[in-house]
Amino acid sequence: MKRDTSPTAAFQPAAPRGIVEGLVYVFERVMPDPFVLSICLTFVVAVLALLIAPTGNVPTLLDSWYTGTFGILAFALQMILILATGYAIAEAPIVQRGLRALAAHAQTPARAALLVFPVVAIAAWLNWGLGLIVGALLSREIARRVHVDFAWLVAGSYSAWSICNSGLSSSIALSQASHGNALNLVEKATGHVVPLTETIFAPFVFIPTVLVVVVMTAIFIKMHPKSDNVVAFSDAGDTSDDASSADPHARSSDGPATFASRLEQSMLGTLLLLVLGVGYLAMEWRENKFDLDINTTILIFLLIGLALQRTPIAYANAIRRAARQTGSMLLQYPVYGGIMGIMKGTGLASMIAKAFVTIATPATLPVWSYLSSLIITLLVPSAGGHWAVQGPFVLPAAISLHASVPRTAMGVAMAENVSNMLQPFWAVPIVAIAGIRIQRVMGYTAVTFAVSLVIYAAALWLVH
Fold this sequence. Notes:
InterPro entries: SCFA_transpt_AtoE
Number of domains: 1
Pfam families: SCFA_trans
GO molecular function, one term: transaminase activity
Distance between the termini: 59 Å
Oligomer: single chain
Number of strands: 0
Shape: globular
Strand content: under 5%
Transmembrane segments: 35-53, 65-90, 110-138, 200-221, 266-283, 298-318, 330-353, 359-380, 443-463
Structural class: mainly alpha
Organism: Paraburkholderia hospita
């Protein structure tokens, strides 16, 4: 008899792993498309703002929604560029060969988890965009070779990626370390920047970061569905690896060479951009010492991608393929910008933050900052935008209470790691590249949410 490989096949209420399979079952049937979910969240936030926010009247709500919707566009482009430039690096031939070589070592589901978690976590720690891309592409390569549940594997990649807000591309940590950054709220309040040694390299951040990766690797190995319930990867109709089909505008290498084709295939254009980019970074870091912010991160990944892709046309084709994966983000960013605007403009976010701050002490403020961030992140799933909303309330409290400013700020960032496991906003690119429905993935990452929630809270409270 033919085995049922439909999404419902993984749900077996009587199985020992019934809790996890039950979560997958619920998410598949309850959770709508992420864009539809963002609209639902807009409705919920608007109703809450009108009912309980300090300035929750209709004119303020509408004005705040409009301001937020279009005020996020510059930041949205930055985030999409991080993803696109990360995609271009991960799609470079040398990186692809490396991913295939890595995938060859994953011969069982357990080995797949042992491979995916550290590789994706390291990539995500270096850059969140690179982590998303590496996770999706590595999952596909492994799933082509191993009889493994694909949703489980992609969920493992996304769970490993979750530590990104504790890494080098953490917008909260980077902005507080960047002199003159618009989101450097610490500098505006105290006149000082917070170096990365006090945030992402501090023990209370890197210890739980490593612990989440290790613990979730072990848990995911235990969570893999039984062989009869595995829904494997199918690449039928998949053309993502075919550059010509992915880019209908690409010129064929057959036929007579033209001036345009020679220019496209020449490395001179790449070398020009590399000289400009490397020259600027060398000058900037010599004059103002080494610094990383969102724009320099984008520039570095642009330069690396250009160097790996070698020719301008190869890089342009890679970015075109990346654009196919970022379309859903273009839809969702303005909607979440509107939510952010409503929460900030009507005072709803400040009300949530203040409710936790008023009961805090110097020792407990970072934990209360973390808990309030968990709620706000579900509605504002962008660390930079979230920080702009919550930072102005938790930082003055930290200063007045003489609490740890770095710990309070990173409490917000660490909660981003946790809430992203229930908020599908950042899962959209990885599932789009992997080619799988997001609902099955979120059923597994709900477990990551619960486990990492405890680990990060304990670290904020106990690790010094």
